[in-house]
Backbone:
């Protein structure tokens, strides 16, 4: 059986399920007391809070000493919550007026406050409900004399912990020797337990929902924290396959981890930038943790999809600022204006169904028609540019007229903001995606006007070969190592560099081991890929000599097929086999 | 006395700035300090109450201070409300 959740912390873990029972499930029957017992209950409450606070302070100090600053800060917040007047007052009131036991009173306060937090709009604040539950669980644990921490499972083999939700306290005190991975029903990528899991490197899946109800404990499972897949009682072949993956993963990860923060520079001193393609602010955090130096493609569609209204300027602004903030003031973050239409439907725009969506009314073609949408997005990007090195990129540009029209709208938005006295980066760079052969062919003319190019190889390939990239029968044509595509790429890079403009790539190709040596040789400056490939690409580039790769690329351009090019690269660049 | 501030922190009143507000408010034991947004008036001496205000970047939050050292408390806490604690300086 295979169940899917949200991959929260990458890696593979194998082991038997240990079901974690909650210390005091919500909705448990409330215990009443006699009015005369209230003062004694209040005293118990005070004592339990004091004990809990001492425990949290010790945990905080221990984490701080180990250099785990971020986690230590979380417990600093818990310390404040333990003494929070709202929390304590609510619990006191439940004892004095509702005549509840101290345990039940804390549970009532916990549920009320958690509900208040969960009703907020902000996802981050909603997830703070988990912190309230953690703090209250600790107080209740003290009251009932039970430890809130994971009981000794008695297992000598590492286990896979399965819980409704893991509190930050649980996660931070997990022993990676005893717990191979964990799976929770609740939580998202930004919950504290997910963040801590990533920082201590325990594979984890969150947000499984009700699909785990059938687990009894003791089942053998495999956690794939990358894809979010949980395999329950897999067959021997699957186990073997994952064990092998785990072993090679670990070895490779150790090698790659050493390159976190290292420069992406070739043997002969040519620096390139390795950036990530992201789809949301949450991706940005994950990308940074995987070594990305910036964002080469922020797909902004997510802001528009799956909702009944259009995202407001403020809402978009917050999303862009949040990404800028994740990467810091200097790291480049390329924001691609929305690529909606065609196969990505947006009900609110009421776009007609098309016969050839990839060749249809989409992306910049809509933006230039709908200045209301376009300006809302551009104003949001411009305002956010005051907080980081943001750049604007237009998708699906085919003609110079389209580029100039789009740029004119940017200038119009700048004029408006200036008149309103709103801060933005006056020198914000504007560039285009090169994904339509028409633009690649005239790259030299575009190069004199734009600030940068980013080559979108997925679409560039399908448009060059008139081959739908969703059609499985056409995968051989949809190969970016086709000589025709390589020639277009060479042309675009040359055109940009002749004008002193920078040129990047944001297609899958940018992270492929066979392509990286060729692209480096052709003079590509920015490689933007899925974040998981960044360290691998860095490891490769650091083993290559750029001038040797330039020679390699020149020879590869003379070859006749993707197969020949692959074989040639394999033969001449053994370094690609990491 | 009271004054309205615009939340400058890019992430809104998240845990870090909220904690600073509570710490500052608690320095004035004989003063009542409230934060008010959209008709919701909460004590600024409780982290829970400051967080459940749900104040985002750009929201207007009114700080209400009653008791001893009103002006000092208003200035100190107002500075936190209008500080960009998590963000970067504007460069435009």
Residues:
């Amino acid at each position: 059986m295979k169940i899917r959740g949200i991959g929260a912390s990458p890696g593979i873990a194998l082991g038997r399920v240990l079901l974690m029972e909650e210390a005091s499930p919500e909705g448990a029957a409330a215990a009443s007391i006699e009015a005369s017992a209230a003062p004694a209950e209040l005293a118990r409450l005070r004592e339990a809070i004091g004990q809990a606070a001492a425990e949290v302070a010790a945990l905080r100090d221990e984490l701080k000493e180990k250099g785990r600053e971020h986690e230590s800060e979380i417990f600093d917040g818990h310390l404040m919550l333990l003494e929070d007047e709202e929390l304590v007052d609510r619990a006191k009131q439940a004892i004095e007026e509702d005549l509840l036991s101290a345990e039940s009173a804390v549970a009532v306060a916990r549920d009320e406050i958690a509900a208040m937090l969960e009703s907020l709009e902000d996802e981050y604040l909603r997830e703070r409900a988990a912190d309230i539950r953690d703090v209250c669980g600790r107080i209740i644990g003290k009251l009932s004399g039970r430890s809130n921490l994971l009981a000794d499972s008695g297992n000598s083999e590492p286990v896979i912990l399965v819980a409704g939700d893991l509190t930050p306290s649980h996660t931070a005190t997990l022993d990676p020797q005893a717990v191979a991975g964990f799976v929770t029903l609740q939580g998202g990528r930004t919950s504290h337990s997910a963040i801590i899991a990533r920082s201590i490197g325990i594979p984890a899946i969150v947000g499984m929902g009700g699909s785990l109800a059938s687990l009894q404990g003791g089942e053998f499972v495999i956690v794939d924290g990358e894809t979010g897949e949980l395999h329950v009682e897999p067959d021997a072949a699957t186990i073997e396959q994952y064990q092998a993956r785990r072993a090679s993963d670990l070895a490779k990860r150790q090698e790659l981890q050493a390159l976190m923060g290292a420069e992406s520079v070739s043997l002969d001193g040519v620096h390139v930038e390795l950036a990530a393609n992201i789809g949301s602010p949450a991706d940005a955090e994950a990308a940074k943790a995987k070594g990305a130096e910036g964002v080469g493609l922020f797909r902004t569609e997510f802001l528009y999809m799956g909702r009944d209204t259009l995202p407001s300027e403020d809402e978009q602004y917050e999303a862009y600022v949040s990404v800028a903030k994740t990467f810091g003031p200097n790291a480049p973050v390329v924001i691609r204006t929305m690529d909606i239409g065609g196969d990505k439907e947006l009900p609110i725009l009421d776009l007609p169904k098309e016969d050839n969506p990839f060749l249809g009314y989409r992306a910049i073609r809509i933006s230039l028609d709908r200045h209301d949408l376009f300006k809302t997005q551009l104003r949001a990007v411009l305002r956010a540019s005051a907080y980081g090195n943001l750049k604007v990129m237009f998708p699906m540009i085919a003609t110079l007229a389209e580029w100039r029209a789009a740029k004119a709208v940017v200038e119009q938005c700048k004029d408006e903001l200036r008149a309103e006295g709103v801060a933005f980066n006056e020198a914000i760079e504007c560039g285009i995606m090169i994904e339509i052969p028409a633009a690649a062919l005239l790259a030299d003319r575009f190069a004199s006007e734009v600030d940068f190019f980013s080559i979108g190889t997925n679409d560039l390939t399908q448009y060059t070969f008139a081959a739908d990239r969703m059609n499985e029968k056409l995968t051989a044509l949809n190969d970016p190592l086709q000589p025709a595509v390589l020639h277009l790429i060479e042309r675009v890079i040359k055109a940009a560099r002749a004008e002193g403009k920078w040129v990047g790539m944001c297609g899958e190709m940018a992270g492929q081991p066979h392509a990286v040596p060729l692209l480096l040789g052709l003079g590509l400056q920015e490689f933007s890929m899925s974040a998981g490939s960044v360290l691998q690409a860095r490891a490769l580039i650091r083993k290559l000599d750029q001038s040797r790769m330039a020679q390699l690329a020149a020879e590869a351009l003379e070859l006749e097929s993707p197969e020949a090019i692959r074989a040639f690269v394999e033969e001449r660049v053994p370094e690609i086999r990491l | 006395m009271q004054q309205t501030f615009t939340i400058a922190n890019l992430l809104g009143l998240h845990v870090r700035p909220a904690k600073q507000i509570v710490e500052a408010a608690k320095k004035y034991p004989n003063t009542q300090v409230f934060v008010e947004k959209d008709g919701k008036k909460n004590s600024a001496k409780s982290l829970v109450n400051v967080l459940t205000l749900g104040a985002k970047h750009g929201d207007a939050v009114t700080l209400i201070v009653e008791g001893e050292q009103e002006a000092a408390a208003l200035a100190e806490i107002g500075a936190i409300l209008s500080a960009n604690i998590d963000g970067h300086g504007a460069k435009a």
